[in-house]
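Consider what follows.

. . .
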Amino acid sequence: MEQSERTHLAQSAAEEQASPVARLWTKEFLILTACNLLVFLNLHMILSSLPLYMREHFHAGDFYVSLCTSLMALAAIISRLFSARALELGKRNVILFGGLAIALFGTVGYYFSATIIALLVMRVIFGFGFGMYSTTFPTMVSDIIPRNRMGEGMGYFGLSTTISMSMGPLIGMWIEKQYGFTPLVALGSLFIVILFPLAYKLIRGQKKQARLNEQAAASAAGSAAEGAVPDSTAEGAVPAPTSASKPAASKFEKKLLLPSLLNFLMSLTYGGLVSFIALFGGEAGIANPGYFFLFNALAVVLIRPFSGKIYDSKGPKALVVPGAVMLILGLVFLSFAHSTLGLFGAALCYGIGWGALQPTMQTWMIQVVNPHQRGMANGMFLNSLDLGVALGAMILGTVASMSSYTSMYRFSALFIVIYIVIGVIYMVKAKSIPGQEQTVHIKIK
């Protein structure tokens, strides 16, 4: 094992030993989770409703529908390339509030978009802002979760993302059907406006804690001269960056590649769901296809508390294959669904798989990097998610145009088959290399 990895493991052990009963459910954790819920509710309420809106108002085909998803996601990916680095340099406030302002402008701009080109431009603008602030909140929460409860903590935090991804489409399609697209845009804009005071409250609290950390660090300097190793980070606090912990330039961490690839493959299937589930409902004769997201959310809520604890005790290898199998079952069952009952069965399977795997990928990525690289890890996680959704919408939209939405969902299950093959190959190799699994899952007994 390289020296940097040994140092990282040693620091992790020290953190856990210093705070064996650290609290997870702090005020900061709850506020950040609420912020993340609003972030993704705004995204998915509008994202799922745009295909029908574009069909009805602009007579758009599958290509333009997929562009609406893909361009936004690609803009978010580009913005995260500099957002992650800016977070490492301490520019968190600029990225957070700047991103919120840009996203608010893009969301309000939907109302004034009289052509499909104008709507796509607003999607790109929103994507840039979304990429900035959606990276900031996960990075902030990963700094306050006790390391020995990282899997559990990120699981509960990620539950806000998954619930938004499940309930957002249902809420969005219902509002558009009952009241039209304009009230939906107004509600999405309101969510972003609410984020401003919540974010400001967090920033003020963390500035106060940073001052306490500096005082503790100064006190620690004197103790270190006598051989003491104090715990200079208070419970629930965001560690103050130092010149030792925040290098001038961070190299890309290669251990992020595998979980990023797996997250990407998984997200390809979600791109087909969020972009075409409403159109699939019309083809299959299902009156309310949006119920898929409601049933999916219920399954996620049921599985998430268990999956986080399984990760903390056994690592990602215990969840990768079982979760992927449930995703395949969900997609296959969906392709055969012609009633609400069939939709329920498909959503239950898919929700169990997604609810177990999504926080697993994010926690895995956070744990293989040093603390100052968590912005990079969260950026990679979100980029692989958005890239998967973007390309998934384009690829599966092409498949649907050449066949049917039923065939499209069966085809999308092949992405998860590839996911399983890659995951199994990695786990087999990890067992044959001494110390390899330790670098994937940090667990202090």
User: Anything to note?
Assistant: The two ends are 20 Å apart (CA to CA). The longest helix spans residues 181-224. The chain has 14 helices and no strands.
